[in-house]
Design brief:
binds acetyl coenzyme *A; alpha/beta; 5-stranded mixed sheet; 4-stranded mixed sheet; globular; Peroxisomal Thiolase, Chain A, domain 1; 337 residues
């Protein structure tokens, strides 16, 4: 009798970005910057910007529906909706995940947001994996969705040029029917980390319960995204190397076993520096930052969806997601596709 083993894997992916595509030159028209500076310092040429009536849940629902279709699932197959976002529809409550649950007509699922900034999708995949592995869910919809254009200080060229809006999604499922190890997607345990001592190096300082927004007193800029770029850069390079090494060591793998690293798309130079420090082939790191900028929690699933849509993934390929961001947070997942 054939033994049916179950595993936790990815059964579908999807993405959605807003229609409006903004070239660096357009930003150079409203602030003191140039296409040349932005491209050579970051690798970014375009970003997509949400329309005034588009919020994080709108992008998330489009990406989520795409992932459900690809997984061949109906809305009611989903047991849990996780939305990783630091630009939610509403400040604090209700969760964006509940809005998405309603938009997608998912009627019997829990729904919650997850805040780990640009590492959010990685935290989300690990949360979903553990729910499914524990038998608490069969299918979890994980979405990273961001509308950073709403929280940027458009007068600060050091941050405004870096980010874009978008959403990406994956369905994490219990998979039972595939015939062999190579034919079955499988997610391995993640590496997750945090360094809260760096909380204010990448944050919105005012508007929460620490520093309340006081009308007429709080300057608008203090409610928007601010970042110590150099500090975050150095943190990013070191944790990318640490996470990749930890994931490889933990699983008795070498870098040669990895088909693609999908890094958080924050800056091409960060990835180049990390690849150099680890002595890894940079061409194995998939980048699409040129088109989207940094879409925070959405950047890894948007890149994953692009790899899949371009037909660049085969069953059994080993993918390594690695991310870092505000918190400070960092982490990585290993996924057999
Ligand atoms: N256009 C023109 N000049 C600029 C711009 C711009 N858009 N931005 C900065 N400059 C200038 C600065 O004013 C500075 O000029 P000065 O020396 O006369 O003061 C000069 O360029 C160099 O500035 P640095 O900040 O030192 O530039 P750096 O080479 O460090 O690049 C960058 C800045 C791209 C932000 C880099 O530090 C970086 O990538 N940091 C990490 C960012 C990151 O990953 N953030 C996302 C984390 S994810 C999340 O959770 C949201």
């Amino acid at each position: 009798m054939e033994r049916i083993q179950s595993s936790v894997g990815i059964s579908g992916v999807g993405a959605h970005v807003p229609e409006r595509r903004v070239h660096n030159d357009e930003l150079a028209g409203i602030m003191d910057t140039t296409d040349e500076w932005i491209y050579t310092h970051t690798g970014i040429r375009y970003r997509h910007i949400a329309a005034d009536n588009e919020a994080a849940s709108d992008l998330a629902a489009r990406a989520g529906r795409h992932a459900l279709e690809q997984a061949g699932l109906e809305p009611d197959d989903i047991d849990l909706v996780l939305v990783a976002t630091s630009t939610p529809d509403y400040p604090g409550l209700p969760s964006t995940a509940c809005v998405v649950q309603d938009k997608l007509g998912i009627s019997r699922a829990g729904a919650m947001d997850l805040v780990a900034a640009c590492t959010g999708f990685i935290y989300g995949i690990e949360t979903a994996r553990t729910f499914v592995a524990a038998g608490a869910a069969r299918h979890v919809l994980v979405i990273g969705s961001e509308v950073y254009s709403r929280i940027l200080n458009w007068e600060d060229r050091r941050t405004a040029v870096l980010f874009g809006d978008g959403a990406g999604a994956a369905v994490v499922s219990t998979l039972e029917n595939s015939p062999d190890e190579r034919g079955r997607s499988r997610i391995l345990p993640a590496v997750l980390g945090s360094r809260g001592s760096g909380a204010e190096s990448l944050c919105r300082l005012h508007g929460g319960t620490r520093h309340q927004y006081v009308p007429g007193v709080t300057p608008e800029a203090a409610t928007l995204l601010q970042m110590e770029g150099r500090k975050v850069y150095n943190f990013a390079v070191s944790v990318i190397v640490e996470v990749i090494q930890d994931l490889l060591n933990q699983n008795d793998l070498t870098f040669d076993d990895i088909t693609y690293v999908i890094p958080h798309q924050a800056n091409t130079r960060i990835v180049t520096a990390a690849a150099r420090r680890g002595d890894w082939d940079e061409s194995r790191f998939f980048m699409n930052i040129e088109e989207y900028g940094n879409t925070s929690a959405a950047s890894i699933p948007i890149a994953l969806n692009e790899l899949n849509e371009k037909g660049l993934l085969s069953r059994g390929d080993l993918l390594l997601f690695v991310g870092f961001g505000s918190g400070l947070t960092y982490g990585g997942n290993l996924v057999y596709w």
